[in-house]
Q: What sequence folds into this?
């Protein structure tokens, strides 16, 4: 990180002196015009701002204070500490430096090596006004600057929140990719799918390519995480705050360290799962995954050349999907057990059916977007008004269900003359309404041909195979990521509140930092607004993560991150929050730690 930061400053014309215990580390920035100092003291001589970007607290203390060549031996200016250290450590060295005439600025950063070289890091700064005035332009030359307060330690507290998220995101990325390999997927294509889904995160996008390439080059060493998450858990113990997601991630990194992987890239935590489950994640080619045309190039489906489509289930996701189809000119019949749920799409030209059977009559493609397996089975098969009572066409099941369940209903439907397409989706209610979902589809070629244009009218389509259940298996991988990301978003935001940070500012900072994810960006605003409206109900996660853990038990695959997230959602359900928005899992932490995340 430090090399990229220094190069970024040099490219911007900053008069720069640099020091590293490895002289060769200075070569690149010296070529850009910097001067190489012989020791920390010489590096600090004649400068007004001194930046310290070493690895840990011991190195910070050594370079600043130890011996006659220490940086602060004869320095009276602003010392900007960018290392990830404990808040209490920063308080202590700030007091010690003050006695020597130096003002310490607490400014840990986030963003990774690539963004460091581009001058696009995020700095979480606590500093008094005079010190901030002196170093602001230097920090801004290296990235975005967020001032979180004046007291030393607040910047490091903010970095702790980011590290909770980032560390958990790396660990669960490893868990999800190893699970995908265990299920026989082409892992490179899994990466392509997830980066369009609700399971995406900065760390998934950044670290999984290293897993796929089996690249041990330590862009960020695995050893960093026992240190950083150790800081988190020590501080949480001091605060009396539970941090189960971060604690579980720490165990995975410690396992990697025990395997001798500490000096490798932190993405090599995937080797823990590979060793336990007997799989290889690196560029594992399995089921052929084909990306179909996106909805951006999909034509409007005019009534004269469009298939007739039936749509069962107009809940939070289904309503947006149906409206998206109606806006694209699809001839649509809809049914929901709540008649009022049909009103919006009927206004767009759809016809409301009185029963599932009526909804299926005269259509070529029937879409099922209900909540769970019981509802799928009921709406398709139960009683004289069942959808498949007199339907012979293509039935597209978009619900999140177990792979084995889809196999079973596909066989049962086949006996009735219906072909089932397994097509779970991801993306959330907003993207559903925009026709920008991601569909993970398994279907035989004739069925895919019949329903392709309909699916493309609602989003991006990935064909993951022909066998029923493969689409649902792919959705499981996404749900491991998405569920863990929601749970750790709650944990991180509650920790921020406990540490006395402005939670709305925390949101603004994290969305620019390495701790960001689709779910953090989407769910945390609901936490900040204390909004229980169930855009996606908490009850969904005991179901979805239950499916994951049942399937992992069958496969003999360990899923500790998903298992820990499930416990947080079950705690929320036990508190009576099952019908609330899934972001209300934050109430579990609020109840335990006695604080509120809601922004003032």
A:
């Amino acid at each position: 990180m430090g090399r990229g930061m220094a190069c970024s400053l040099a490219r911007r014309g900053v008069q720069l002196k640099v020091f590293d215990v490895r002289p060769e580390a200075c070569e690149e920035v010296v070529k850009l015009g910097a001067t190489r100092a012989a020791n920390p003291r010489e590096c600090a001589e004649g400068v007004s701002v001194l930046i310290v970007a070493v690895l840990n607290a011991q190195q910070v203390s050594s370079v600043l204070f130890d011996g006659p060549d220490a940086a602060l031996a004869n320095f009276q200016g602003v010392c900007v500490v960018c290392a990830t250290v404990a808040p209490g450590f920063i308080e202590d060295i700030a007091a010690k430096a003050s006695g020597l005439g130096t003002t310490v600025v607490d400014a840990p950063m986030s963003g990774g090596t690539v963004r460091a070289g581009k001058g696009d890091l995020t700095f979480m700064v606590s500093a008094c006004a005079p010190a901030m005035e002196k170093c602001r332009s230097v920090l801004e030359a290296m990235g975005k600057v967020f001032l979180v307060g004046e007291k030393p330690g607040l910047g490091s507290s903010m970095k702790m929140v980011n590290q909770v998220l980032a560390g958990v995101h790396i660990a669960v990325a490893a868990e999800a990719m190893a699970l995908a390999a265990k299920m026989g997927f082409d892992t490179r294509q899994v990466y392509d799918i997830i980066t369009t889904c609700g399971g995406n995160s900065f760390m998934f996008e950044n670290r999984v390519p290293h897993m796929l390439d089996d690249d041990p080059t330590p862009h960020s060493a695995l050893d960093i995480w026992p240190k950083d998450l150790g800081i988190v858990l020590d501080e949480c113990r001091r605060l009396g705050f539970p941090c189960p997601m971060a604690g579980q991630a720490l165990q995975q990194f410690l396992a990697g360290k025990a395997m001798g992987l500490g000096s490798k890239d932190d993405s090599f935590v995937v080797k823990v799962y590979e060793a336990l489950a007997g799989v290889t994640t690196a560029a594992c080619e399995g089921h052929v995954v084909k990306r179909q045309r996106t909805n951006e190039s999909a034509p409007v489906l005019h009534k004269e050349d469009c298939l007739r489509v039936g749509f069962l289930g107009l809940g939070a996701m289904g309503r947006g999907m149906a409206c998206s189809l109606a806006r694209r000119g699809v001839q649509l019949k809809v049914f929901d057990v709540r008649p009022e749920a049909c009103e919006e799409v009927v206004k767009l030209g759809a016809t409301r059916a009185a029963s599932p059977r009526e909804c299926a009559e005269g259509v070529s493609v029937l879409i099922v977007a209900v909540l769970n397996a019981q509802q799928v089975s009921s709406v398709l098969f139960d009683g004289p008004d069942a959808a498949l009572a007199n339907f012979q066409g293509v039935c597209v099941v978009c619900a999140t269900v177990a792979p084995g369940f889809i196999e079973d209903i596909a066989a049962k439907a086949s006996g009735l003359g219906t072909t089932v397409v397994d097509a779970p989706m991801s993306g959330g209610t907003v993207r559903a309404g925009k026709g920008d979902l991601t569909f993970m589809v398994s279907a035989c070629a004739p069925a895919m041909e019949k329903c392709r244009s309909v699916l493309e009218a609602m989003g991006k389509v990935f064909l993951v195979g022909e066998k029923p259940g493969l689409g649902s298996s792919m959705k499981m991988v996404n749900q491991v990521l998405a569920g863990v990301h929601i749970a750790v978003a709650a944990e991180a935001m509650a920790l921020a509140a406990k540490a006395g940070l402005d939670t709305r500012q925390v949101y603004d900072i994290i969305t620019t930092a390495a701790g960001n994810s689709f779910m953090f960006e989407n769910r945390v605003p609901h936490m900040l607004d204390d909004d229980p409206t169930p855009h996606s109900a908490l009850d969904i996660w005991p179901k979805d993560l239950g499916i994951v853990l049942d399937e992992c038990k069958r496969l003999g695959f360990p899923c500790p991150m998903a298992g820990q997230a499930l416990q947080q959602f079950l705690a929320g359900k036990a508190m009576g929050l099952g019908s609330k928005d899934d972001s209300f899992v934050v109430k579990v932490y609020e109840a335990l730690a006695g604080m509120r995340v809601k922004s003032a």
Notes: The chain has three domains: 2-152, 161-184+193-278+483-593, 299-456. Residues 158 and 558 are 32 Å apart (CA to CA). Confidence is low (pLDDT under 50) at residues 288-305.
